Amino acid sequence: MKKNKPPFPPEWEEFPDYIEENKPPLLPHWWQWYALVTGWLCLLIGAFYLFTKVYS
Amino acid sequence: MSVADWIVLGGTLIGIILYGIWKSRGQKDMAGYFLDNQSMPWYIVLLSIIGTQASAITFLSAPGQAYTDGMRFVQYYFGLPLAMVVICIAFVPIYHKLKVFTAYEYLEGRFDCKTRTFTAILFLVQRALSTGISIYAPAIILSSLLGWNIYWTNVIMGGLLIIYTVSGGTRAVSYTQTLQLVIIFVGMFLAGWMVVHLLPDGIGFNDALKVAGKMNKLNVIVTDFDWKDKYNIWSGLVGGFFLALSYFGTDQSQVGRYLTAKSVTESRLGLLMNGLVKVPMQFLILLLGSMVFVFYLYFRAPIFFNEAQLSKVEGPALQQLRAEYNSFNQVKQEQVRALSSAIKNKDNAGVEMAQQKLQAAEANAMKVRTTAIDYIKKADPAADTNDTNYIFLHFVVNNLPKGLVGLLIAIIFLAAWGSIAAALNSLASTTVIDIYKRQFRPTAPDEHYFKASRWWTFIWGLFCIVVAQFASKLGSLIEAVNVLGSLFYGVILGIFLVAFYCKRIGGTAVFWAAIVAEILVIIVFITNIVSFLWLNAIGCLLVIVLAWIIQLLQPAHNGMKPVQSGCQ
């Protein structure tokens, strides 16, 4: 796979398109991953907050 | 340690080394040695990422941190999940597209050679020093347990690790990390089960949680904002986000892990899953420390957990302090039973009274302990008076059954080896690809670089052992590693963010901005204006702002085009 290494410098202008072309794993859009991760973090923080309050 | 412990410990460690050597078969070139020809599935990448970050320090210091400071340390990881998504979108596809060995290769294409070299050197300094600490962490276990000389213990530990890291490259590192993590999770679960099981009859897990809460050891969330407070939700979210972004996005020890994945999708899945599991995992490790704290309320805690150090300064004054400390321990034992009894009977007045008496006894015991630590310091000025790293170890050695002690000590070694092996692999790849091949031997055959890679893995292993010899003065090891990282990560991240998002900024501007920013970060750290987590955000923002200013002052040119200067 290293044999196909592109020459430096690569075509930098391609990056934004290249990034958009790559679909995220499991979910159709990246904003859904942001929502999932943010929701998971909020859930954890909420649970930890309750944990702190209940036991202190 | 008993014979059974020695058998379990020796068998586990030898088994891992042999497994690593077995996985080393078939290595012939650099692509195999550093990237395993990009063949790893996402779950191996995930376990490798976790195994690289979770060193022995995580399993030694984190429970001790919870014992002394409660569980608020978990907030340090709150920025990590979001950082994983950003890295998946911005960093991973670029590295894969360019088919790079190291993250720093990209910087030459985007900027110039001197920026690439400078960033690679920042990484090498930071990673080599923190790897030295990671070798020292398991070494203190053996020296404390067996009375071995700490310096020779460092040498033996680092030496064993180098064997399979040199021969196996990244494939051996990743597969041994996977096996190591399975053993580690089993061992930590057993330790957690045992600490609850060893509490007095009638005291269950929920009772222990209530007692720990009353003693302020379950304070997971701290919402008060304070620049100098190390762990609150704000420093965790903002500082932790920048630190995670820099660590996982630009630190070759992590980039090297997910570059082994067979596709962009597999790399991303590994990182995203890491974002989901890291916070709960760290919470459970800290919870174990809080349970150990409760255990030592019911049973006598030593005045100083590093008993090997204590025996060096034994004398009448210390004996008197110990007697005084034990008398407060007696009060603590009485009051913790009164507290748990009142909690069970839902006697609020009784709970309040017992809590106050228990906290007063704990405060008095802490005063005596502080006096004892001062005494140790005076009697032996060279002594390490921070015993945070010994707390969990002390519990394991003195309270767990035969065989399990050996397993717990083995998992601490395995955890250390996982992160150290990845670090040595990344130090070698950065040295060979970004320094040696780029600056000194650009046209040698691949076989030459393959051999050089093995040699540099060996050389960095030796260097890190030397660093380990000086690590004893750094206090809490987990904090020392994070402080060290924060000194450099912000600036490195700033360089990469400029590369990705500030297309008009060129190499010279970002190079000088990075140098000035690094100096300013060190000044901010020395003057202790803010807590160390903020250094990540400060360093990153400084690079971006300074690079813009310098670029504006320069004659106009397209920043996207590489400026070849400084390394010719």
TrEMBL record, chain B:
Cross-referenced PROSITE patterns: NA_SOLUT_SYMP_3 (PS50283)
One GO location term (cellular component): plasma membrane
Coiled-coil annotated residue ranges, if any: 318-371
InterPro entries: Na/Glc_symporter_sf (IPR038377), Na/solute_symporter (IPR001734), Sodium:Solute_Symporter_SSF (IPR051163)
Record's bilayer topology term: Multi-pass membrane protein
Record's subcellular location: Cell membrane
One Gene Ontology biological process: sodium ion transport
Transmembrane segments: 6-22, 42-62, 74-96, 117-142, 148-166, 178-199, 231-250, 271-299, 404-433, 454-471, 483-502, 509-526, 532-553
Keywords recorded for this protein, A-Z: Cell membrane, Coiled coil, Ion transport, Membrane, Sodium, Sodium transport, Transmembrane, Transmembrane helix, Transport
GO molecular function ontology, one term from the record: symporter activity
Chief location: membrane
A Pfam family matched in the record: SSF
Similarity annotation: Belongs to the sodium:solute symporter (SSF) (TC 2.A.21) family.
Protein name (Swiss-Prot/TrEMBL): Sodium:solute symporter
